Amino acid sequence: MILADKIIRLRKKYGWSQEELAEKMNVSRQAVSKWEAAQTTPDLDKILQLSALFGVTTDYLLKDEIEDEEFTDDTNDTNVKKLSLSEANAFIAWRKTASVLIALATMLCIVSIMPLLILTSASQLAYINISENLAGGIGIISLFLIISVAVVIFTSVGFKNKPYEFLDNEYFETEYGVVGMVKERQKAYHNTYIKTNIIAIFLCVISPVPLICGSFSDNDFLCVLFLIVTLLTAGAGAMLFIIAGVRWASMQKILKEGDFTQKEKKKSKVKGTVTLVYWLIVVAIYLSMLFSFDPSNYQSSWIIWPIAGVLFVAVIVLCDFIEDKHDKQN
Fold first, then answer.
1. What is the pTM of this model?
2. Does the structure show a pLDDT above 70 at 27?
3. CB 3.0–4.6 Å: which of 12, 38, 118, 237 could bond 200 by disulfide?
4. Domain total of the chain
């Protein structure tokens, strides 16, 4: 029996479709189809992964003369990470805490511009004795201090999440009871997840209202105050999105659902790199405007963020289109 027939036999034994096997192997469905049609042969890494996935020896897979399945000793199977019930519970609990920390750090990034806006606007008022340069300097210092706190929080969350990075980067299996426990938690959280997202959407939709109201005033300082209300409202919506999304994603990761199937995780690596480069460029443009020390830039630089947010959606859609086209070609 050749390798192609053995792959078909084992796949059907486990009740998996070609698509499901492809997700577990982190390859395209076309690749699995070619293996089973004996048009191509998996490379050594994929042979080892198939061996670990099906629990059979590599000799059984590679030697045509071996007809009967030769199973590996589970005690020596170190190729596939097993997620225990205690690890799953600990991960979900940690991500619940991390969701609040990430939301807080995000809110700090949003409000970091507020002292600069308030001080530079206040410097235009006759009854406040502060120069534009001093106001701008204090505002920029405040901005960097607040951003620094946010960066510390993001970094701390990243370090504490390292023990669970295998959920994103490696193929893993769950021990008995894990899937049932996570599905029960997901079911219990489902209504809260929906309600939280509805509130978040509402806050984001109404967030421009204060800014629109402020646009009818001739008082620049009042306009800035309305802008701050807009930023706080949008920030509150963003916080709710993050808290709900991170908690929901923690359960999807374990269940390998939604954006965390093998196929989607492969896409997310590309999108992660694009996202990092994109926002670094946006931040660089934003800081270059602030460091121009032109007071007019302090008032208008905030517009970069909503524009960048809209363009970012287009960039992600383009990434998905290119990745899907690449998968079809392979």
1. 0.65
2. yes
3. 237
4. 2
